[in-house]
Amino acid sequence: MRGFGANPAALTQKRWSAPGYAVFRYLIAALFGIAAGLALTAINNGSANNAGNTYTLLSVAAALIGGCALVGGTIRPIGTTFGAVTLSLVAQLLSALNVSTDYTPLIQGGILMLILVLQGLIAYEGPHEPMADLAAGAAVDLVVRRHHRA
Q: What residues contact residue 48 under an 8 Å CB cut-off, 6+ apart?
């Protein structure tokens, strides 16, 4: 499935339609969501309307720690798994150190912010020269105009 999502030509070669494939992906995601909801209900021995609120930070943070950019993009499942394990280990470590459970989301959020800052620093390309960008754009525009005249 991941190969189809990254390569639209593979979809057409296998005679899949893009809307049909999108429905298929959402159907699989819905089945996993149903399974997760049933598992959470079983763990809590009942249902509650706010039982999953604490998992929102963890799910987003696991993907971001695993290497996904905040603005989107591709990610490897092993990275998300690594992020989830890291957050679970942090929670277990805080519990072993007798830190109040009220501070666990605070520390996990701090780790998430640190990861985001590091991702931003790694992606930073430095200041751009506005005149160099303008000159490059003007050169491309000049080449395009000459090509259309010929």
A: none
